[in-house]
Specification:
Blueprint: H1 7-10, H2 19-32, H3 36-50, E1 56-60, H4 66-75, E2 81-86, H5 89-100, E3 107-112, E4 123-129, H6 137-150, E5 156-164, H7 168-184, H8 189-199, E6 206-207, H9 208-217, E7 222-229, E8 232-238
Parallel strand pairs: 1-2, 1-4, 2-3, 4-5, 5-6
Antiparallel strand pairs: 5-8, 7-8
The structure holds ligand GEK.
Length: 239
């Protein structure tokens, strides 16, 4: 049973994926990311559809394993090879404990590493759900270029990001509706404000256009926004 996220009721300061956050992660992500379950489920289904036997799936920023759990369910008896990467030790400890309890025909390897430092060996699906947003702009460009180069034609890169709108009006609208969503999920004004301040300069969102331009520069030409809820945008890119 996951603990309730009340971190910002009492503290303020910069955000990090430490033990306190790991302990409440499931509650936090469900109450902070609209359509989170739907995003995970459809990504697991797309992974199943595009995974080529004998290749690897990479989950960049795997956290406590929600995508892995969903993938195990979707793959059923099918064999697969998944590399799940996260640089937060407490998060990966939760991941390992949780995934060990699942029965699966898949080979699952968890790696405590920075996603910028790993080699992509024979991938057919690479996923980064809400993780690129924590990298610098240069690092985003480098990793997407490497992802593109490591995939073969027809393979996919799935990613979800918090995005912003370049128009002030529409950005304010997104903000308003997002904060309303958080309030409806039980976060108080002070918690919302403190979390926003804590993420400033750490989670750097970009516009959808900026993402598409970068994807194009890195080689991706077939791109679809398959889900969008105000700030939250999920992409599929096919090589
Ligand atoms: C999910 N994908 O449930 N290298 C490795 N891991 C990183 C890095 C990095 N450079 N930066 C951040 N992380 C998950 C949710 S959460 C999103 C992803 C959120 C890790 C970080 O430790 C955390 O576990 C994850 O990326 C981001 O679908 O909490 O907003």
């Amino acid at each position: 049973m996951t603990k309730k996220d009340d971190i910002f009721k009492t503290i303020s300061g910069p955000f990090e994926f430490n033990e306190t956050v790991a302990t409440v992660f499931d509650d936090m992500i469900h109450r902070s990311v609209p359509l989170y379950e739907e995003i995970i489920l459809q990504q697991a289904r797309m992974t199943k559809k595009f995974y080529r036997q004998g290749t690897r799936i990479y989950d960049l920023g795997c956290s406590n394993g929600n995508f892995t759990a969903s993938l195990i369910g979707e793959m059923n008896d099918r064999e697969f090879d998944l590399i799940a990467v996260d640089n937060s030790c407490p998060m990966l400890e939760l991941y390992n404990k949780r995934i060990a309890a699942f029965k699966t025909s898949g080979k699952i390897t968890s790696l405590e590493a920075d996603i910028q430092d790993i080699d992509f060996e024979n991938p057919s699906v690479i996923i980064s759900n809400l993780t690129l947003q924590f990298l610098s702009m240069e690092a985003r460009e480098t990793i997407i270029e490497r992802i593109y180069n490591s995939l073969s034609d027809g393979d996919i890169f799935l990613f979800t990001e918090k995005t912003i709108n370049g128009s002030k009006d529409l950005e304010e609208l997104q903000q308003e509706f997002y904060y309303r969503f958080k309030e409806e999920n039980g976060y108080s004004q002070i918690e919302i404000t403190r979390k926003r301040e804590a993420l400033e300069n750490y989670l750097i969102p970009e516009t959808v256009e900026a993402h598409i331009e970068r994807l194009n520069r890195c080689g991706f030409k077939k791109i679809e926004v398959w889900l969008k809820w105000f700030h939250f945008t999920a992409f599929i890119c096919r090589k």
